[in-house]
Write a structure and sequence with these properties.
about 110 residues; six-stranded antiparallel barrel; mainly beta; Thrombin, subunit H; about 5% helix
């Protein structure tokens, strides 16, 4: 969790949370689809060059962090995906702000 309280203006990127549900394809056959659950404003931080070089080729490659307000209309769970700028991210971990209960830090990994 950040050591200082982030400025509200830092939550300036729109992210969307998706949940996998059963749907139907164009032929009517059952298939799994991602349905939009909720969206919110977030602060987004990608890996710095040094971190990118260190994690290249490992499980930690393509990790990104999202900082959101703790109180959302819909509870955020780790079985959801995040859509940000046309890319989907699998939630790896949600770190709640236990001290102030103001922000949650979400660690996510890009999926193809």
């Amino acid at each position: 969790m950040p050591s200082k309280r982030p400025d509200i203006s830092e939550l300036n990127k729109r992210i969307t949370f998706l949940k996998q549900t059963q749907g139907k394809d164009s032929y009517g056959a059952p298939t799994m689809v991602y349905k939009e659950v909720t969206s919110c404003w977030a602060s987004v931080e990608s890996q710095q060059l040094k971190e990118f070089i260190t994690t290249y080729g490992t499980e930690l490659q393509n990790i990104i962090t999202f900082l959101i307000r703790s109180k959302q209309r819909v509870p955020i769970t780790d079985d959801m995906m995040i859509s940000f700028q046309g890319q989907k991210y699998k939630i790896v971990e949600i770190q709640p702000d236990l001290k102030r209960s103001m922000y949650d830090l979400i660690v996510a990994k890009a999926v193809s």
